[in-house]
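Example 9 (inverse folding). The structure is encoded as follows.
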């Protein structure tokens, strides 16, 4: 029974590490997705600025 308990504790530690790794990957994917969305919005603003001379409501 003692060996089984040690095995289950090891599995629990491994599961925690897998969960933390998955959480890290999820945060990384969210950061990359937000950067891509922000880049596309900024690219549209720059195109509008070139085409319309900066007359859009976002121009600085």
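The amino acid assigned to each position is listed next.
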């Amino acid at each position: 029974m003692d060996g089984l308990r040690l095995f289950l504790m090891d599995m629990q530690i491994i599961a925690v590490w897998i969960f933390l790794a998955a959480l890290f990957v999820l945060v990384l994917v969210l950061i990359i997705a937000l950067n891509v969305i922000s880049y596309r919005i900024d690219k549209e603003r720059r195109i509008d600025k070139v085409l319309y001379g900066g007359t859009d409501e976002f121009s600085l």
